[in-house]
Design a protein that fits this description.
Four copies of one chain form a homotetramer.
Chain A: E1 2-3, H1 14-22, H2 35-47, E2 54-58, H3 61-72, E3 77-82, H4 86-89, H5 94-97, E4 102-105, H6 114-124, E5 132-139, H7 150-163, E6 166-170, H8 174-178, H9 187-192, E7 196-200, E8 210-214, H10 217-220, H11 223-229, H12 238-248, H13 252-273, E9 286-287, E10 290-292, H14 293-300, E11 303-304, E12 306-312, E13 315-321, H15 328-339
Parallel strand pairs in A: 1-11, 3-4, 3-5, 5-6, 6-7
Antiparallel strand pairs in A: 2-8, 7-8, 9-13, 10-13, 12-13
Helix pairs in contact in A: 1-12, 2-12, 6-7, 13-15
Chain lengths: 341, 341, 341, 341
C-alpha cells in the first residue's frame, strides 16, 4: 500500500535528519536560547524580509494557533475565520478552551474576504453583549488547497488595520502555497501583509515544528511567557532551531515544497483527463477529487487516500496529498491507477 | 414616551416588593441557606412536579447559563444550540470564556430538532479532533418568541438520552411560554422532558433571579461550588428565596405571565389587521413586526420599541414586548397608534 | 437567638428600601444605562474626589474581584495578595478559573507591605517560567478587621507604579474602614492611592451591590464587555444605581458604617475588660476574640457568632460582627452576656 | 566549558537516534495511531506491570501535567502539591490557566506526606467557598533530587483512595529515581501506588517525550480529546513511539539513568570530602551543593552549573546534573576541580 492521504506520513527530509545527527552531542542551553534557534530566526527574517520581526519556534500547529490567538486577544474578543478554518473544525475547541469564541464566516473555496470582515465588525457594532472581533485568521494555503492572491491578502490587511484587528496567517502549509506556480506573492509580500504568521515545518520537511513570526510589537511583548504557559516551550529547543536552519539554508524549504506541488498538479491533470471533478480547484499539494464509489474502491486497493465525506448517494470526496517524501515512482504508479479507472 | 421595548423595564410585581419589605429586618443565614430559599425550592418542586430535583437560585441569566453549562461538560465538550440561541449571540462569549465551544445549528423559527442533534453527533463521529457535543441548549420561549411543542421537546429529550447528551431548557421567559394559550405542555411535562431548566424571574415579576432546577443527579453534585466559583452566590440569598416564594405562591408567576401574553396577542392582532407581517409567528409576549420606515417612525413618536435590524431597503424588524407591568391603558394606546398607521 | 455572626444578615437600610419602593414602577433602560446609575456614579466620583474615574455597578464581591482582575492581567500574569486575602481563600478559586494564579504572600495582621511586593517582583526576575506579578490586591478593611494606614497604602502604590503593577483595593467593607475612628485617610486619599477599588454595598446597607471605581484608563477600556462576559451585568441595573444613590446621598454610607464600628468597639472593650484576647487588634466592625470552649458555649446560648477555627486544645477563635442593622439593644444584651462570662 | 547545569543539554542517546534514522522513510499513520506507539505502549505496560493501563505519548512535561490535571479535575477542584512542585513554581501558571488552583503545601526535602493531604482535606471541610482538593501531585524524583520511599508513596495512595483524590506522580526524572541505589521500589510498585504517572523521556535519553500512564479508567476515558485540545497531539506521533521503543527495549532507560546517578553520587562524595554541605541530601542525578562565592567562581571557570539562589551573604546554592550524555571524563575533570577548591 502506498499512502498519499496526508503530508506527514514520513519522518523528515534527509538534510534535516543529517543536521540532527551531526549536532546530537553538542551541548546547548535549553528552551530555544541556543545558537541554532538564533541562526534559524535570522534566516527566517531574511527569507521573509522582516528584519524587525520576533521569531519563535513551537512544536505543533494547534499549539501555535492557540498561543498566538490567546496572547493577542482581550478576554471578550474573538477571532474571525472561514467556517472551514482549522481552528474552527479540527482543533477540539482549543481556542475556546483558551476562552475565546471562534467567529466563523461562510467561506468561498476556504477563503474569506475583506468585505466580510468589515461587515462582521459593523454588525457587532461595539455592542458589549456580543463578542468583539479582535483578530482575523486565514490559512495559506487553505484547508481546501486554495490560495489567497496578493490583492485579496492586501485588502484583508488594509481592512484589519483600519478596524483595529490583527491579521494572522496560519502557514502550516506555507511552503506549498508560496512555491505553487499559481501563487502571485513572494515570501516578503506575505510577511508584509499580515501581523503574525507561521512557517510550517511539520508538513514541509521537518520532523515537527512551526516557526511563529510576529511583526506586531505589542503581540511580541513577553510572548515567551505565553509559549511556556501553553506547554509549547521545548526543553531541547535546539531541535527546532537545527531543523529550521536546515530548511531555510539555500531555500531547501521552497525547493521541496515546489517539487511536491508539481507532483500534485500532475495527479490533478490525470484526474481531469478522466473527467473527474474536484470539490474546488486547488493549485497546491492537496487535491480533492470527487470519485464514484467504484473509483474510490479501485484506487483503494493499492493506495491510501483520505476520505473527506460523502457528496451524494454515489460519490465521495477524497484527499490526495504529496509531500517532500513523495517519490516520482509513487506519483507515476498513482497516475497509472487513475488512468485505469 | 411609553416603553414597550423589553420585559425588564420596571422593578418588580407589587406582591414581590411587599414580601421584600415585610421580611427586610429578619435575620437570615447567607448564601441561600435560609428558610425562604428552602420554601421557594419546595414550591418550585411542587409546581413542576419534580420532587427529587435540586433547586438553586442565581441572580441572572448569563450567569445561570454559564454555571450550568460549564458544570455539565467535560473540557472537550461543546453545547449544541440554535444560531439564534442567547448563549451564541448575546452573552459576549461567556460560554467560550468558560472553555467550551457553542456548536450553533441553523434554527427554524428559533428552534432546533431532534434530527439535527442526531445528525450533529453522527457527523462528529467521536473524532477527537472535533469538539464533542455534550449538551443541547434550547430556550422556552425562544429568543424569537416561539414555543417548542411537547412532541418536539420529547423528541429532543429522547434523542439526547439515547446519545448521552444532557438537555438544558433556558427558561428566562418560561412563564410566558407555559402560560401562552398556544402552549401544549404543563409545567410538569416541561420538567419531565429535560435534564435541567431555569425558571426566569427577572422578566416575569421579580427584581432579578433565575431558579435552576436540576433533575440530573450527576450535574447536581457539588453544584454550589460551581455557583460560588462563577460569582453567582448571592450573600443575601434570601432575596432570591423571598421573591420566588411570592411568585410561586398561588400561581402568581403564571397569572402575570398569562395576562402579559394576552396583551401581546391583542397587539399582534392589531398588526395583522393592518396587514403588517412578522419575522416569525409568536404566540408569546414578544412580537416582531416588520415595519416600513415610515411606520417605525410614526410609532416611535410615542413608544420605545427595540430595533432588531434592517430587513430590506425600506423595512425594519422591531420588537414589542409586554410584561407583568404593562397596563391595559398602554396596550390600548399602542393599538390605537397601530390602527392609525 | 440574636445573630452577630456576619454583616449581611438583614435586608437593606430603610432609606435604600424606600428608594427601591418609590422607583418601582419607573420605566428605565436596562444594563446600567439608566439615570439612577448615572447619578450614583456621579455621587461616587464626588465622594472619592476622582472626577475622571469610570464607575460600574456589579452585584457581588467575587464577581467584582474576578471581573477586575481578569480584565487587568495578561494571560501569564498573577495577582499578589496576603495569604488571608479573600480571593485566595474564600472564592472557590474564581481567579484561577479565570486563568490567573493568586500569588499569596505571608501577611501580618492581614496586610502585605510595599517591601514584600518589591521582593516578589525581584524574585520573579522576569523569568518566563514563573508567573509574572501584574497586580496587587489588598482589602480595606482586611479580612481580619485591620486597616492600612495612609503611609502603608501610599508606599504600596508608589512601589506598584514603579514596577508596572496595578493596585486594587477590595472595598467590600470600605465603609467600615473609612468610618473607623482609627482610620487616617479620607475617601479621596484612598482613591488617590490605588488604580481601582470597590465600594461595597452588600455589607454596608444595600441589598446587594459593589461599585467598581477605575482610575486606570487602560483598565476602563471596554470594561462593560468584561462585566457582561463574567455574568455581572444586571438586566435591571437601575437597582444598583438606586441603592448607591440612597447610600451616597448625604453621606449615609459612612454614617451607618461609623455607627456600626462604634458598636463593635464597645463590644471589643467588653472583651478586653474580661481579659479576653483577640487574634489580632481590629479597629473596625469585625472583632475576633479568642474564647475558652466554656465561654463560647455560654455566649452561644443566646447569640450566633461565627467560628473561625480552633486556636488550641481549649480555645477557639470567633467572629463578632456589627452592621447598619445592629441595634443598640442587641449590643447591650451581648455586652451583658460578655460581662457575665 | 563543560555544561553540567541540567540534564537536557544534548540531543538523544545514540540508540534512540539510530531508531529515528532507521525508520525515517517508513510511512505511518499520524497522531500516535502507528505501530511504534502501540509497541512502545506495550513495553511500558510490561515494564511497569500494569497491563490494563492506558498509555499516551506527549511532547513535554508542562503539557503532560496540564493535560492530566485539567482532564482529572472538576472545575472547582484543585491539586495539592509541595511548594517546590514544578507545577507550582516553574510552569508559568499553566495549571491555573486551565482553571485550577494549585494548593501548595510546605514540603520537607521536596516531599509532602499522607498526613498533610488528610489535614488539607479536613480543613477544606467540603465548604463550597473553598477550592476542593481533587488530586495530589508528587514528583519522583523530586525537584530537589529526593525520593519517596515505598512506604511514603503507599501511605499517600491509601489516603487519596480513602478521601476520593487521585494521586499523580510526575516522572519527568522517573528513570533517575527508580535506578537510584537508594530507591526501595520497583517500577511495578511505583505504578501500583498511584492513579496516573509519567515516564519522562526528555531528560533520560530521548530528544523529547513524556509517556502518560493512566491506571484510573475514568481519567482514561476520551483522554485523546484532552491531548488534542491542549495542543499535545504530535502529527508525527511515531517519533514518540520510536523513541520510547528504543528506551524501553532491554531496559536501556534504566541502564542509562543508573549510570548517570552513579556519576552524580561520585560528584556528591567529592563535595562531601571537601566538607561542602547540600541544600538537602539527594540520592539521584541532581546535586545541590552550597558553595562559597569563591568556590562558585572557581568552578565557574571551566564548568557551567545552575545557580539556584543565594543562601546567605557569602554562600550560593548551585545545581550539578548528570545525564545519559555525561562522560566519565567530564565527571573526573569536575571532581578534580572540586578537590582543588
Amino acid at each position: 500500500m502506498i499512502r498519499l492521504n496526508c503530508d506527514y506520513l514520513e519522518g523528515c527530509h534527509p538534510a534535516v535528519l543529517r543536521a540532527l545527527c551531526d549536532t546530537n552531542l553538542e551541548q546547548n542551553p535549553g528552551y530555544g536560547l541556543d545558537p541554532h534557534c538564533e541562526n534559524a530566526a535570522r534566516l527566517i527574517r531574511e527569507t521573509f524580509a522582516c528584519p524587525d520581526a520576533a521569531v519563535h519556534f513551537l512544536v505543533g500547529g494547534t499549539q501555535a494557533n492557540t498561543t498566538i490567538i490567546s496572547a493577542a486577544l482581550r478576554p471578550w474578543e474573538g477571532v474571525l475565520c472561514a467556517e472551514t478554518g482549522h481552528i474552527n473544525v479540527h482543533e477540539t475547541g482549543a481556542i475556546e478552551a483558551s476562552g475565546h469564541k471562534v467567529l466563523a464566516l461562510p467561506g468561498r473555496e476556504g477563503k474569506i474576504t475583506a468585505e466580510q470582515v468589515a461587515e462582521a465588525v459593523r454588525l457587532q457594532g461595539d455592542d458589549e453583549h456580543v463578542v468583539r472581533p479582535g483578530m482575523v485568521y486565514v490559512s495559506m494555503s487553505t484547508e481546501v488547497g486554495t490560495l489567497y492572491s496578493l490583492r485579496e491578502l492586501g485588502a484583508l490587511h488594509d481592512t484589519c488595520r483600519e478596524l483595529g484587528l490583527l491579521l494572522f496567517v496560519d502557514g502550516a502549509r506555507l511552503g506549498y502555497a508560496l512555491a505553487a506556480p499559481g501563487c502571485d506573492m513572494t515570501p516578503a509580500q506575505l510577511a508584509e501583509h499580515c501581523d503574525v504568521f507561521t512557517v510550517g515545518g511539520t508538513k514541509v520537511g521537518a520532523l515537527f515544528g512551526e516557526a511563529v513570526v510576529i511583526r506586531c510589537p505589542a503581540l511580541a511583548t513577553r510572548f515567551r511567557y505565553a509559549i511556556k504557559q501553553r506547554g509549547g516551550m521545548l526543553a531541547k529547543g535546539r531541535l527546532l532551531g537545527i531543523q529550521f536552519e536546515a530548511l531555510m539554508e539555500n531555500g531547501l524549504y521552497f525547493d521541496i515544497a515546489g517539487r511536491a506541488v508539481r507532483q500534485a498538479l500532475r495527479i490533478r491533470d490525470a484526474f481531469i483527463d478522466q473527467g473527474i471533478p474536484f470539490t474546488c480547484p486547488s493549485p497546491t499539494n492537496q487535491q480533492f477529487p470527487i470519485l464514484t464509489d467504484a473509483q474510490a474502491e479501485a484506487l483503494g486497493r493499492d493506495f491510501v487516500l483520505e476520505r473527506q465525506g460523502r457528496v451524494d448517494a454515489g460519490h465521495v470526496a477524497m484527499r490526495v496529498c504529496t509531500s517532500w517524501a513523495t517519490t516520482d515512482e509513487m506519483v507515476e504508479r498513482f497516475i497509472g491507477a487513475v488512468r485505469a479507472l
